[in-house]
Structure formats: C-alpha cells, structure tokens
Amino acid sequence: MSIITIVARGRGALLGLAAALAAVPAGAQSLPAAEAAPCLLVPIAPAQRAAAATLIAEAQVLDARSFWDAGHRHLFTRHRLRVFGLLKGSAADTAGLVVVTEGGRLGPDQQVLTNTLRLTPGQQGVLFLGPAPWPGLGLAGPAYAAYGSTQGFVAYDLARATAADPFRAYPAIDAAFYRALDPAGTRPRLALRPNPALAAAQARPLVAAKGAAVAVVTGLQPAQLPAGTGAVLTVQGSGFGATRGGGFVEFANADDGGRTTVQPLAADYLAWADNAIQVRVPSAGAGGHPAGTGVVRVTPDGGSAAASPGALTVVYALTNVASTDVPPNVQRPNHVANNAHGGLTFRYAPNFGANAAAGAAWQRALATWRCQTGMNWELGPPATANDIASDGLSVVAFDQASAALPAGILGRTTSYYQGCYAPDRSVVFYVNEIDTQYSSAIAFQFGPAIAVGQQVDFESVAVHELGHAQQLSHLIRPGAIMHYAIARGQNSRQLAPESDVAGGRQVLRTRSFRNRGCGGPALLPAPLTALTAATETGGPVLRWATQDDCFLSSFVVERSAGLDTAAATAGWQRVAAVALGPPGTAYQVADAQAPARLAYYRLGLVRPDGTRDYAAPLLLAPAGAPAAALFPNPVTGTQLNFQYTAATDAPLVYSLYDELGRRYRLAAAAVLPGLNVLTFDVAALRPGFYIFRWQDGQGGYQSRKFLRL
C-alpha cells in the first residue's frame, strides 16, 4: 500500500508527493497524481536521497547470504556487489562491495518484512548507500545499507534498458538518467569497469528486427485467476518458439501497481510451445514480488516482447515462501495456534499502548478480519518492551530512535516463518510470530471519525497490514483492502468480499485450519476458543466454547465414514446440528451411535452466507482401545498404521527389526498431543515377522510385533 501526497513530520523530514514530483528532474517520468506507489511509503525527493547517501553506486548483485545478528533476534542478508560505476563517494572494494538488507532465509528460519528492500542475485541498478546502521552484524570490513530501503534502489530492466524506483520510471539509461539521480550533484559518473549486460540491453532495439523471433499474444485463458495458489494461466498466440530457452513471461508487479513487471520462477513454467504457454501465476516470482492485474508479456528466446490484448485479472494473492533448496521449494505458509484459545495473541508495546486512539483503531481492524474470515486473533496482555524482534511475541509498536523505520516508510509487518518436516517428509512452513511497526512521525487520523482532506486514516492502514499478517500479498484492485495503495483522505476499512475475504478464507481453509503435521496445532476458526473430544462411558463427546459470536449462525458435528478421510471412498456423516446459543454457552454433543472403531470427528461452523469452516478433525478411539496398536496385523497391503497416544509434541523415534534382529529402518515422526495415527510404507519388507519399536517423548521404549504377508 502506498500513501499518496502524505506529509511526514519529524526527523527533519517534510515530504509530500507534490513536492517530490516537482523535484523530479529531466530524464525521469513520475506517476500522475491519481496513481500510486508501493505500500506505506512517503516519497523521498531525488535530491534528498542523493544528499543523504555517502555512496551512489551502479552495480550488480552477485549473491545473497543470510545471517543472524549477535543477539539471534533479527535475520539480515549480506550481498556482494560488483560495482560498474560511481556517482558519489568512493569504495575500497568495488569487486565485492557488501550491502546488507533486513530479513532473510537461513535454514528453516525466515523473516519477511513488507515495504523493505530485497535484492536478488543478478539484479542491476543504482544504489544510494550509507553505513549499515544495525548493531551486532559481526561482519568483517565495512557494510552498507540502502537509504530509504526500497527507495534507495533504482532497479534496471535489462529486457528493455529502462529503470524504475518506487516513485519514478526512467525510460532510458543514459546521461540524462544519471543526472536525474543526483540533480544537485556536480560529479559525472565515474566508470570503473564495463557492463556487458547493460550494453547489450541498450543495443537490443537496434538489432531486434534482424532475424529475431516475432511473438504475438492473442488471448489469456482464463482471464481471471488468483496468484500464489498454483493456478495455471494459458497464454495463447504464436511465435513463442518450440522451447522456452531464454524466453520468459512477465506479469504486472502488484507491489508497485504494475509500473514494473515480475517473472515467474523457473518451476512455474509447465509447458512452452510455439502457440501456447502454460505458467503458474506467482505471488513470489523472481525478486519475491506478486503478479497483479494487468497485461501479460511474452518474450521468446532472442526475440522482442509481445503484450496480451487484454488484461489478466488477479483476484487475490496468497503469500508464498521459498526454501533455500536448489531449486527452491515454494509453498503457502500456514498459521499455528500459540495461545490457549486456539489462535494467535498480539500484544501492544508500551509506546503503542500509550496511544488509546491508536489501540482502539487497531482493535477495530482486528475485529474486521475475525468477523469476516474467521481468523483467530486476539489482543493479550501488553509487552514489556518496544522491541520488534524474533522473541516469540507478536508485538504492535510505534518505531523509536533506537529502532527507527527506514526513511520514507510509515509502517511494515514482519512475518517470522519456520520450516519443519511433516510425517510424509514434505517441508511445511508456518507463521511462528508476527510483528507490526508504525512510524511515530506521521500525524494519523486514528478515528473513529473518518479521515478527510490531507489526513491518513490509521484504521485503513491497520486493516491492510493485518491482511499481510493473514498472509495475503498486494493486489492491483482499487476498492480492495489489499490494493497496493491508499490516498490521503481515503478510508478503506471494509474487506472486499471477492478478493480480501475470499483470499483470507482460502488461506485459513486450505492451510491454517488444518493440522499440517508439524509446527504446532491448527488454528481454531474464530469465534471458537476451545474444542476438545474424548471417549467417555456413553461414547465419544465433543465440547466447545466461543466468544464474540460474530460471523456465526450455527454448528454441525460430523463423523468420518472411514479412517482415511482422503480416500476416494471417504466421507463425513452428520452426528448433530447445533443451534447458536446465548453468549457463554458451553456446547456439548455426544455420539450415541459411534462405531466400534477409530474415527475422526470434526466441528463445522456455519457462517451467515451458508458456507462452513471446519476445525481440524480430532481422532477418537472406542472405549477400551489400547493406547498404542499396530493395524492391520497381519499386513496384507503396503501400509502399516500405528495408533499412538502422545503426551507431548516431542517427535516419535521408531525403528523396524526383522525376526533376526536386523534393523531395517530408523526414523522420526512428528506427533501432536493426544491420539495420532501414523502410516508407514512397508512395501519393501519381505514376508515375515517384524518388531516395531519406538521411543516416546519421556525416553521410554516400547515395541509391538507384526506379520507381513
């Protein structure tokens, strides 16, 4: 989201978009006043940006390596840059200049900050740099950071020999371009080494017509899709080439309203033929940006770009994260419950809690998501510090002198991800913590009155940032909360049903309301605060409780038709329909017709629109069933099931031995507290007797025998 024509006060800044646009020199094209730039930014005038930087370098990013700071509280990423030229200052090392950005990926840990610069190896552009301001980096030698974060990088588009920053587009990389970057400077660009890629890009229009492939895009099927869900777009036309080679597809970049483009990752290309391309619509394409509504371009190998005659409409975009594997494993993260009510608890930092109007506006924003998507968030006791760090607490804070936001940023959300392995050995990324920080330098309208004139509506900003916390990315969709921009005097407090609500529910229903096998228990759909299941004398019993019963009409309790709820023959049978009771009702349903077997039970919340949100299924055994058992036994197929009641979420370590004591397997499986059913592939075992041995979370060993036929 961007703030248009905002005046930021404090820290010596008096920045308005009108003033910034007036300061744009020749060689740069600015956005018209009716358009916008990325989320929550105040434009920094080129002269101010150049004056604040101690080093202005034209460079290429060589690599990206993430690391923890000394306190193991923040992830940073160190980049080495090859410098082609200098517009200001000097550097001792121009072959490996070190630039540090906030956030990063290291093993199973990731930190992603909205409105914050992320650099990708291979990128080129001009960086406005100063000494890295963060303590505890532990790097040998000098390290730099971009002034204004995203506004401190003017990125090159080498496919077109153009450049852009968050507020300006540059139609050519020439002498006028370099003068526009530092209008008050007197020093010409100092060339240090040739830049073959840029030279080739500048020469490409002169040679493009000499035998180059000529592509034509005739249509897009379908014309409306979400991003980041794996949805596949078919681009129809001709002249694409029989194979992809060095060709690529480009989508409008939703982070800047489509002023630049984003390419899919290599794994997103599913098919490439001369007359059709099939490609996934990304929300974390090259550079980490989401695809947005706009024309789609195809550039065949060695050819020139062709644009679609109509626009692709991206209705919503779900956040994706990528592992550090090569190639990366890209997936949608899920939330996990980390409080006693099956949800996530936010806490006000002291400097935020002291502003009652800000706190009230933020709680209204929280209720908007809870009561329209079922996101289980709550406000808990205040934090004791204003820290924004990986500390297990989800904090809402204003910035402060010791932890100031970069110049020009009004607010940002940090999502802390962790990865783990599910029982099927797939990698699962989940949201472990969420922090939100707002600038203390802006005079927000905190409400409940609406913003007018030149005011910035805080509740609109808070609703948008909570959309990022719900794991939604930017859209190019005016009227939607997740639209990338907001203007002064604009009040966007209501979710758009077809995009914000639909995308938010997709995150929850396909990810966060399900047990993913590791990372923690699934979220309970709001307004649930408790859900338990137990086998009692009369049979299985489900109990649950709620609070703030918005977005709720009634309940339904269902039982699985079989143990494998994913099988083709699986189904769910209704046990009871339950009417909504008065506030404080303690709900309870017993299954008097329960079968004498293992079964899953699930509670469905019926929403006012007739749809349902289901809490993660709970597994129950019939009365008198053993705490641990193998079935089927003998094994006649290829799968062996292990019924196990865990006291904690400590991994179950197990091994398989044959009758001669030879070990065939040693592994660990993730479990959740309570009854679990783990399934193992035993197709490779020869017929005979075997021993299944396991170590529980308390260190004790047990074993069971089974027969493989």
UniProtKB/TrEMBL annotation:
Residue runs in coiled coils: none
| Signal peptide positions (record) | 1-28
Which Pfam families does the UniProt record give?
Peptidase_M10 (PF00413), TIG (PF01833)
Q: Which PROSITE patterns match?
A: TAT
* Protein name (Swiss-Prot/TrEMBL): T9SS type A sorting domain-containing protein
User: Is-annotated flag, keyword Hydrolase?
Assistant: yes
Q: Where is the IPT/TIG domain?
A: 216-303
InterPro entries reported for this sequence: Ig-like_fold (IPR013783), IPT_dom (IPR002909), MetalloPept_cat_dom_sf (IPR024079), Pept_M10_metallopeptidase (IPR001818), Secre_tail (IPR026444), TAT_signal (IPR006311)
Q: Which domain of life is it from?
A: Bacteria
**Peptidase M10 metallopeptidase domain sequence ranges:** 362-503
Keywords in alphabetical order, please: Hydrolase, Metal-binding, Protease, Signal, Zinc
